[in-house]
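Weekly modeling sync, notes
Attendees: AB, CL, MP (scribe)

Item 1: holo prediction request
CL wants a bound-state model with adenosine monophosphate before deciding which constructs to order. AB pointed out that an apo prediction alone won't tell us much about the pocket. Agreed to run with the ligand included and paste results into these notes for async review.

Input as submitted:
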Amino acid sequence: MKIYNTLSKRKEEFVPLEEGKVKMYVCGPTVYNLIHIGNARPMIVFDTVRRYMEHKGYEVNYVSNFTDVDDKIIKKAIEEGVDASVISERYIAECKKDMEAMNVKPATTHPKATEEICGMLDMIGTLIEKGHAYTAADGTVYFRTRSFKGYGKLSHKNLDDLQGGNRSLLVTGEDQKEDPLDFVLWKPKKEGEPYWEAPWCNGRPGWHIECSVMSKKYLGEEIDIHAGGEDLIFPHHENEIAQSEAANGKPFAKYWMHNAFLNIDNKKMSKSAGNFFTVRDISEKYDLQVLRFFMLSAHYRSPLNFSAELMEAAQNGYDRIVTSVSNLNYLLSNASSETMSEEEKALLKEADGFAAKFDEAMDDDFNTADALAAVFELVKFVNTNASAAGSKEFLQALKDEILSLSDICGLLVEKKEEMLDADVEALIAERQAARKEKNFKRADEIRDELLGKGIILEDTREGVKWKRA
Ligand code: AMP
Ligand code: ZN
């Protein structure tokens, strides 16, 4: 399995730190609003990476944080006249609902910044002790960027270019910094804002320190994969590396993965320009499985454009898989024989080839676009070769194959068409009437239709009884 590593700028063979295990950290959202479809991209992409690794037999410890202390959260709390935690808890709950609807698995741990302050105080203390951080006159603690020799290795920036090109750093009024490149680890409290007691000043953490601390607490000092959107490469991930490696004296993450951005109608998503959608907005028009399909239809390192046409195409693609499975269910309820014929065994071998193609695409830096193409080839093969003459064993094996590949993509493609009791009763009544008129063909059709929807009929002396499969 090859992964493109932002650190080396090339695809590398994946070798876990510990055999059979993967330690993976994905930077999560700042919770001050419903998540937007841009935030959904890393969630879906890295959930798919996790699922594929699990399919390969790895035990994945997947940690993804919620940033629940931040200027935007505090601003909203002040506007609403509530505590910041009311805002963050509300949007964590909403985010979890969206994740579930997109079939994103819950992380092994979802730490929250506000619950990890102790660990942050510890790491900042260590950095000061080791000379990698210092306290300014007002109590702000800064990371001494030039003290960390590897600074710039992830974003492939050179310190002097950074200083020259980043003049804004010089005019932010932070003249108490020793060097414009230094960044905040801890800042003093402001009136009306949440704060924690600390040896340097009462206040709150800078953003970068939370991920270094949570990653260390839940995964250890060295991890396999650290991931997020490409906007996080600099400065967030660069700063995380500096903090973690300076504090722990060990390499931090082995592989750094970054998804490209999602744009809308070829423009950067922006609230003020009116081209901005939350996941909830999309859920009003589409099943969120379609959004998931859409996200996976491109390679995660390619920019992805969101448009009505592309969503329609995603809807059609997703529907093709769903229809194929639902046809198989219908055929299964009518299958004439139980066990596979020799000819079917040969066909099944051919079908296995599509699963091999799928794995090959995923092994190549999670090329979900090509992996979905392999799923479509399988669907086409199934639509051609599955018929009413097929055996139960054969049809079930084809169905399992589609479900297994879809599940790695996190796509739910078997629609459980829940029939209402009243609709079931009405069809049973129609069947009874057909039998009375000796229209056995229609009566059998109704029985099969119900079976296809998971309703099993039983003719007893007391009349027709039914149950759900
Ligand atoms: P934030 O809440 O802004 O920290 O973002 C949470 C995650 O969403 C990060 O991994 C970001 O890189 C990612 N992200 C934000 N906007 C987009 C976008 N338009 N396309 C892809 N990823 C994004
Ligand atoms: Zn982070």
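Recorded for review: The mean pLDDT is 94.
Action items: CL to compare against the apo run; MP to circulate these notes.
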